[in-house]
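Co-fold these.
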Amino acid sequence: NAGVTQTPKFQVLKTGQSMTLQCAQDMNHNSMYWYRQDPGMGLRLIYYSASEGTTDKGEVPNGYNVSRLNKREFSLRLESAAPSQTSVYFCASRNYLHFSGANVLTFGAGSRLTVL
Amino acid sequence: GENVEQHPSTLSVQEGDSAVIKCTYSDSASNYFPWYKQELGKRPQLIIDIRSNVGEKKDQRIAVTLNKTAKHFSLHITETQPEDSAVYFCAPEGNTPLVFGKGTRLSVIA
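Predicted complex below.
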């Protein structure tokens, strides 16, 4: 099992360019998440998908869009990149069961994005 | 939404000493309380978690204690080792998905 796979690992963009970060999991998890990590800010939730066919905004959704393509895949798109979006992006997945077990997040290796 | 604060933001201890990191939260509906560890350049990984019906949980040198009344939970690491050096995040969850604290950078000095 590969777990959670993110691509690309590194990307440099110019301001105004667009790109899509890809994420796939092979653990049959129902929920998937996109976080960004900036120094001193911890992990901030951008968007999440509680189950296939649903997506919801997190703490910092502005400037991003997401697509839950199927149960395995959850992509994050930057339509017009800005320097403030320079960050490390983590995709994560889990089987979410409220008031129950199996709430552990499994993270991908991260994607480092630089916007010039 | 959930407001999460971690203290301290940085912590240095001598090898063999204990370390304690505290996490306070605001959502009284929170019922799941995990701690994640992130080593330099790596992804975060769960090290221990607790549910609201339990006050304490131990796993070898690490433990988590929960005080639901006061809305805080703490990570305890005993007999610290250099490999414990990392950033630790709490991420309480209730009606909203996991909200991560800003992290505590633990340095264990040999």
